[in-house]
Design brief:
Blueprint: H1 3-28, H2 34-59, H3 66-122, H4 124-129, H5 136-141, H6 155-161, H7 171-187, H8 192-211, H9 226-233, H10 239-260, H11 265-303, H12 307-310, H13 314-337, H14 345-356, H15 359-366, H16 375-382, H17 420-482, H18 485-504, H19 508-536, E1 546-550, E2 553-559, H20 563-579, H21 590-593, H22 596-604, H23 608-670, H24 677-697, H25 715-732, H26 735-773, H27 783-804, H28 819-823, H29 849-852, H30 856-875, H31 887-899, H32 901-976, H33 981-984, H34 988-996
Helix pairs in contact: 1-2, 2-3, 3-6, 6-7, 6-8, 7-8, 8-9, 8-10, 9-10, 11-13, 11-14, 11-24, 13-14, 13-32, 14-15, 17-23, 17-32, 18-19, 18-22, 18-23, 18-26, 19-20, 20-22, 23-25, 23-26, 23-32, 25-32, 26-27, 26-30, 26-32, 27-30, 30-32
Length: 1002
């Protein structure tokens, strides 16, 4: 089996495994937490879908596309969210279906029972004479439901339909749970799992009621479920079920031993009493602090209701809100933990009336107050001191079928039992709350929309950055070929010149050598370089030109074609050179000397090849720089958009929202100017009496302060820090772009400067031969000397600029990975077919290992030293110089070049120098690729961290501020309704405000 088939099998296997896990998760819902079940189903479904997506991409053979890989990330997230919400929808739909079908079955069973009972009641004689179900008339005329209603599709639905018991542990909820399990057991009698699950559910309720001292209120047989384990033992059991049954039996044994022991309850009662007193003391202290703050605000309103003073009263509402919520939570906690202790209600009910303005809830709890012998004390605590009066009536008990009935939870189903005035007051209060909260919710909605747009644009910016990074990385990879094209062409021109000399001198050995080298050059140009040029510069026309020699006339025409066409023509000329056979008897050297294909290379080697094909590297570099310039401007645009959204969110939070709430506070508190100072004094005295009664009865210092109370002094600091973090992420998401853009441009400048040395060195090598050849058919007198001197000057200048950065870019010192080549001896190869191990060092012509492995800069200096000595020797006429016009002269010159020590040393050093330069250039390209890859990862990490942080800020900071203001608005409304009805009825304007929630014009 090959690799492709293995991949195909793996994709199929992974896809089906994860989809099976997703199906199992959806069907069984194994965890109690719906969020965990949603998350697991989303993960399984997304992974399974991704495997199938990968399989489809693999079959369509699109797996090499980068956009497919990028899209897969968003595809994964989309499927995850779809799975998350679908599992939530499926769970709720299944539970609702179970409840609906169970209710239908109960109703039908009740109808059947009621029908039988009525017949027995109203027609007893007929029932005595004849059974109703045997009556011919009933058999022929009446209709009955034939099909039994199946409540559950599988026994797992029975279990997760009963999970409400984890949040609601009321006895009614327990009875409903038992009935659901009984229905499930009747439907799935042979499923041992269901018996075990039912036992653990019932046992958990028994444990809960026992720990909360509620078990003694009910019949113990109600919680007896041991028979379920006995039934389960008779059914088929696996290892897991046996373990669970063994665990259940151990629990049953423990409970039996506990029942046999004598409970010493006195110690527990003492501990509970101490705990109760501590909680009660804390709750009453908060209660008193709330009364003090309300009295303080009334006192301020009595002193002044001028606009400039009312503006400052908003902080009092915030404090009242904090004390309200804290004391309310504390009282509720006491009622939950100590439901049998009713004395706390003597403090809780006045708190609901005097602080919370919740007369409806106070009415509900008033029915639970036990009688006391001291009626005066009872009256002083239960009464709201003429603020509101209501009759204490026995409240109808809540329905036993209620699924959500919890002790002391709010249940407005009893509103019909309230007084008319309380119901009216509650309606006015709810209307006012709705009116004041509605603008806050609108403001919150605008803030959330801006936040959502911020996150979306933040993600889009990251996606754009990554896409542009991928494009730049691809362009940088193309530089692998662009940087060596001109050097390779110069090397090909040298080989073409050498093979032409071999043909003219009939040197078969060198002819074969250079023919092989030209064939290798042809393969490289034709298979690699031409594809790179076609891909990047297909229709590009360079600004420079090439010479096209014709016959014996060297400069007949000029070539101005697109660079791809010129490259193909170069390859055609190259193929002609190595396919050219040796001279036959009818040919002479002029057939080679003036051959246009050969002369094409030597003529254009002067500088035309460098200028013309050097634009490949320039164009590629400019393309990459243009890409980063475009990305730079995109980053600025995105940063501006994100900054505007952040400013919009900040304006909504700091200005618009604050202005809105302050205006509401101001208008509401200004309405108290309608209340006379005498009435205000009466209310203040009333609250002062309440505080004195509470402090005296509970032995609390009236001047005590709640040290643990905090009013979120650092709320504004948290908000400011949140926006600072938001702006930091706006800046950070653009940092990778700016950083990589700057570094890439500098590295490309260094790469361009370094790669120029390749073609210069090959040009020097070629023109050392031309200095001796002195071919007057191509060069004017002493032109090769001038060319080689110019090349030496360019190389020396290049080396100096690379060392000092005078060309306007960085130096190699900024790249530690290259320092080894610059400072240590060694041999380097990348593209060359021969390795360093195959080098043959020969001291006869000066090519020693010490010389050949010098660091590249020192090696180039040594090489230039030998070249300059060679030029001096030529000028001193130490070399034979003959006209390049006949075979004999060319033979003498060619043999001199092949056998001279300088040329042998030059050919040996050239491979080491070019190898080191190519190695350095490759390291620079790798640096660029790694840098872009790292910045892609950094950008993705910043996006993930940023989005998580922004969601965190939105949910836990910004939304909390809005929720806090909603609570303060409710506290404000409750404060407004604390005015006694006797006073309200005397102030028409204030009464109108309470009824209409409309402010008077000022």
């Amino acid at each position: 089996m090959d690799v492709k088939n293995i991949q195909f099998v793996i994709y199929n296997l992974l896809g089906f495994i994860f989809l099976f896990l997703a199906y199992s998760q959806l069907k069984y819902q194994p965890f109690y937490s719906i969020q965990v079940n949603n998350y697991r189903f989303g993960v399984y479904l997304s992974l399974g879908s991704l495997s199938l997506y990968t399989l489809v991409i693999y079959i369509l053979k699109k797996n090499s596309s980068q956009i497919v890989a990028d899209v897969s990330i968003f595809f994964l997230f989309i499927i995850f969210f779809i799975g998350y919400y679908y599992n939530n929808y499926y769970f709720k739909k299944s539970v609702n279906r179970v409840y609906k079908r169970y209710t239908e079955k109960v109703i039908i069973n009740n109808l059947r029972k009621n029908s039988s009972d009525e017949e027995l009641d109203y027609n007893p004689e007929k029932m005595k004479k004849l059974n109703a179900y045997q009556s011919i008339e009933r058999i022929t005329e009446e209709k009955f439901v034939r099909n039994e209603i199946k409540v559950f599709k599988n026994y797992y639905e029975c279990e997760f339909a009963c999970r409400f018991i984890r949040n609601n542990r009321d006895i009614d909820a327990f009875n409903l749970m038992k009935k659901l399990f009984e229905e499930g057991i009747n439907q799935f009698k042979h499923e041992s799992d269901l018996y075990i699950i039912a036992w653990f559910y019932i046992n958990s309720m028994r444990t809960f009621y026992k720990e909360n001292n509620l078990l003694q209120k009910y019949d113990k047989e109600l919680f007896n479920a041991d028979y379920l384990i006995s039934i389960a033992l008779e059914l088929k059991l696996g290892m897991r079920k046996k373990y669970l049954i063994n665990l259940a039996e151990n629990y049953m044994e423990m409970m039996k031993r506990e029942n046999l022991q004598i409970d010493n309850s006195s110690n527990n009662n003492i501990e509970d009493t101490i705990k109760f007193e501590d909680l009660k003391h804390h709750a009453i202290t908060l209660h008193i602090m709330g009364l003090k703050e309300i009295m303080k605000l009334f006192d301020k309103l009595k002193s002044s209701t001028n606009p400039k003073d009312v503006v400052k009263y908003g902080s009092c509402i915030s404090k009242i809100c904090k004390f309200q919520n804290s004391a309310y939570s504390q009282y509720r906690a006491i009622l939950r933990q100590f439901p049998e202790t009713k004395d706390i209600l003597y403090n809780y009910i006045p708190f609901l009336i005097d602080v919370m303005s919740k007369e409806d809830e106070a009415c509900r709890y008033s029915s639970s107050i036990p009688n006391r012998k001291n009626s005066e004390r009872s009256s002083s605590k239960v009464s709201s001191n003429d603020i509101v009066t209501f009759n204490v009536k026995k409240v109808n008990s809540m329905s036993s079928n209620s699924i959500s009935s919890v002790p002391f939870s709010e249940d407005y189903s009893i509103m019909s039992g309230l007084g008319k005035e309380i119901r009216k007051k509650l309606n006015y209060k709810n209307t006012m709350i709705k009116k004041f909260i509605s603008p806050i919710k609108d403001c919150k909605f605008r803030m959330n929309i801006s936040g959502l747009l911020f996150i979306i644009i933040f993600a889009i910016q990251t996606f754009v950055n990554i896409t542009m990074f991928n494009f730049a990385e691809k362009k940088v990879t193309d530089l692998n070929y662009s940087i060596i094209i001109t050097g390779s062409i110069m090397e090909t021109a040298f080989h073409a010149r050498m093979i032409s000399s071999s043909i003219m001198t009939n040197d078969d050995e060198n002819y074969k050598k250079y023919k092989s080298l030209l064939q290798r050059d042809s393969e490289i140009h034709n298979d690699i370089y031409i594809n790179s040029v076609s891909k990047t510069m297909d229709n590009y026309i360079p600004q420079s030109f090439l010479i096209v020699p014709v016959g014996e006339y060297s400069y007949d025409t000029v070539e101005l074609n697109p660079i791809t066409d010129s490259y193909r023509k170069l390859i055609a000329n190259l193929q002609f050179t190595f396919n050219r056979e040796m001279l036959n008897e009818k040919e002479n050297i002029t057939d080679i000397l003036y051959e246009p294909h050969f002369r094409y290379f030597i003529v254009n080697s002067k500088s035309y090849f460098d200028n013309y094909f050097g634009e490949c590297l320039t164009a590629s570099r400019e393309d990459i720089e243009a890409n980063f310039t475009f990305l730079y401007f995109l980053t600025i645009i995105f940063d501006i958009i994100l900054s505007l959204l952040a400013v919009a969110i900040a304006y909504t939070t700091f200005v618009d929202f604050k202005k809105l709430t302050n205006k509401t506070f101001f208008n509401v508190l200004r309405t108290f100017r309608f209340i006379s100072k005498d009435h205000m004094e009466e209310i203040i005295n009333n609250y002062n009496k309440k505080i004195e009664i509470l402090t005296k009865d509970n032995e609390i210092d009236k001047n005590a302060k709640e040290e643990t109370m905090s009013f979120n002094k650092f709320k504004n600091i948290a908000l400011i820090l949140s926006f600072i973090i938001i702006f930091i992420f706006i800046v950070l998401i653009g940092v990778p772009v700016l950083d990589v853009s700057s570094k890439i441009q500098k590295t490309l400048a260094l790469l361009n400067q370094s790669s120029d040395r390749h073609s210069i060195l090959k040009g020097i090598q070629m023109y050392t031969y031309e200095v001796l050849n002195n071919d007057r058919s191509i060069f004017v007198l002493n032109e090769p000397i001038r060319i080689i001197n110019n090349l030496i000057y360019k190389l020396e200048k290049n080396q100096k600029e690379l060392k000092n950065g005078l060309y306007g870019g960085p130096t190699f010192e900024d790249y530690p990975s290259i320092s080894k080549i610059l400072k240590e001896n060694g041999c380097y190869r990348i593209y060359s077919s021969d390795s360093c191990d195959s080098i043959i060092y020969n001291s006869d012509y000066g090519f020693s290992k010490e010389l050949g492995t010098l660091p590249i800069n020192e090696l180039i200096m040594e090489y230039l030293y030998y070249v300059k000595n060679f030029i001096s020797d030529v000028e001193d006429e130490r070399y034979v110089k003959l006209p390049f016009t006949n075979k004999e002269n060319i033979k003498i010159l060619f043999d001199q070049e092949l056998n001279d020590n300088f040329f042998k040393l030059q050919d040996s050093l050239m491979d080491n120098m070019i190898g080191a330069i190519q190695y350095i250039d490759q390291e620079l390209i790798n640096y660029c690729s790694d840098l872009i890859e790292n910045k892609k990862t950094e950008t993705l990490e910043l996006m993930i961290i940023g989005i998580v942080t922004l969601i965190f800020i939105d949910l836990l900071v910004l939304n909390k501020i809005f929720e806090g203001k909603v609570k303060e608005m409710k506290a404000l409304v409750s404060f407004v309704f604390l005015i006694p009805s006797s006073i309200v009825n005397k102030n028409d304007k204030y009464k109108r405000f309470l009824e209409t929630s409309q402010f008077e014009d000022y």
